[in-house]
Amino acid sequence: MGLIVQKYGGTSVRDMERIRQVARRVGAAREAGHDVIVVVSAMAGETNKLVGWALELTDLPDEREYDLLLSSGERITSALLAIALQTLGHPAQSFTGRQAGIITDFAHGRARIARITGERIREALGQGKVAVVAGFQGISEKSDVSTLGRGGSDTSAVALAAAFQAGLCEIFTDVDGVYTTDPNIVPEARKLDRISYEEMLELASLGAKVLQTRSVELAKKYNVPLMVRSSFNENPGTLVTKEESQMEDVVVAGIAYNKDEAKISVLGIPDRPGVAKRIFRTLADARILVDMIIQNIGKDGLADLTFTVSKEDRPRAAKIMEQLKEDLGIQEIQVDENIVKVAIVGVGMRSHTGVAAQMFETLADAGINIEMISTSEIKVSCVIDAKYFELAVRELHRAFQLEKEQAYHEKKTPLKS
Ligand code: ASP
Ligand code: MG
Q1: How far apart are the CA of 174 and the centre of ligand 2, in A?
Q2: How confident is the model over 305-339, as pLDDT tens digits?
Q3: Which residues surround ligand 2, an ion (CB under 5 A)?
Q4: Which of 252, 267, 339, 379 could cross-link 332 (Cys pair, CB 3.0–4.6 Å)?
Q5: Where are the alpha helices (DSSP H) in 12-45?
Q6: Mutate which of 13, 113, 136, 158 for ligand 1 pocket (most atoms within 8 A of beta carbon)
Q7: d(C-alpha 78, C-alpha 23), whole Å
């Protein structure tokens, strides 16, 4: 029996009853013969409460102080879980990010883990203890507390699993696993048994909140198998793992959406070299992340350019465009917040044709106009009017028959024989 890492999210540790439950579950893994490293989130709502306090004092809290503040939620739950484990007779010790030896860069609020020294965890495991680590945090080379971005406890868990070469990283949450789409929108949505890192990355970056995107990148890089499952029942969950050849039999694994983007259209810009450079360089320098970009073919020396940014960055992006307007000779700028990006994701797209056509046909049949399209090897995304988004997700789910069990093991017909 090897080492496993278990991570428990906010709802799984939201009160003492839940913490006791988690302690029982961790204890059972230990009794089954595993060495266990547990990573915990803050209690549900706790981090938001801390954020709220800081924002009551100022719009722009100092980054160093803000990180120390936010890291405290996870410290509370790590200590409480260690106490709960000890009470059940399981030797346990809690560790802050610093004590666990999680060394990060200096980017407060979105730090990246540079390395994990982990001496004290090793020592605790050597003494037969459960190591309980406060998630979402580390320490910079200057000894300041850093945090890993919202949802960062997932990344703490995967990084520890990689550093300690754990056989499995279990992510315990309040849903049974990864679904074909949001079950709140499509009640027939089905839980997936397995999904590839690539697909999970696309779903996570589109806003499927089960896993922090960065944690999936890390899991892929170090080939850490992830099991996403519920801490509220014994159901088996969804295994996120490296791509297997049968996964390509399933054309579309899931449908994701992102309601958090706004569209900015720049109409009538001079069609000459350097204009796009100027626009996107200025946005990049302002640390604004641009997602989709389309430009039409120039006509009469003028072109139109449309791009999307997060709703949060929209005011700043629009202001920058207004500032560039005169300089670049832009005729008109339009901003639209009433959009949603809907995407189909699946590694099977690499080997199947007609997938995009099927998506467009489905949207057309539902009378939904497509405003922007972008594709990658395993994804097709469309921007549509926000008011149609639930309809779009439902119709696509039906068109690609995602409610049906299309298990890889059932459908063994090879594409090329
Ligand atoms: N507590 C942090 C958050 O709410 C980190 C986490 O839960 O993963 O974002
Ligand atoms: Mg989370």
Answers
A1: 10
A2: 999 999 989 999 999 999 999 999 999 999 999 99
A3: 9, 151
A4: 267
A5: 16-31
A6: 136
A7: 11
> Could you tell me the pLDDT band of residue 267, with boundaries at 50, 70 and 90?
very high
Residue 292 CB contacts under 8 Å (≥ 6 apart), including other chains = 306, 307, 308, 341, 372, 374, 381, 383
**Contact criterion met (CB below 8 Å) for 6 and 100:** no
Taking the CA of 155 as reference, the closest ligand is 1
- Between 49 and 272, where is the model more confident? 49
Which of 161, 261, 160, 256 lies closest to 210, judged by CA? 256
Identify whether the C-beta of residue 30 lies closer than 8 Å to the C-beta of residue 130.
yes
Judge residue 374's burial from the number of C-beta atoms within 10 Å of its C-beta, 0-12 exposed, 13-18 middle, 19 or more buried. middle
> What separation in angstroms does the CA of 217 have from each of 196, 223, 242, 411?
12, 10, 12, 29
DSSP state of 409: T
Question: Token pair 């996964």 is at which residue?
Answer: 247
Residue entry with tokens 């796009």: 276
Q: In this predicted structure, what is the pLDDT of residue 416? A: 40
Domain 2-174: CATH superfamily is: Acetylglutamate kinase-like (3.40.1160.10)
**pTM, rounded to two decimals:** 0.89
Confirm or reject: Cβ of 12 under 6 Å from ligand 1: no
At 248, list the tokens.
């390509």
| Domain boundary assignment for the chain | 2-174, 245-417
- Which is the closest atom of ligand 1 to the Cα of 148? 5
| Beta strand ranges found along 167-208 (DSSP E) | 168-173, 194-196
* Of 249 and 382, more confident: 382
Give the residue from 405, 397, 255 showing the smallest Cα distance to 340. Answer: 255
* Block residue for tokens 């921007």: 383
Residue 33 CB-density burial (10 A; 0-12 exposed, 13-18 middle, 19+ buried) = exposed
Is 1.10.530.10 the CATH classification of the domain at 245-417?
no
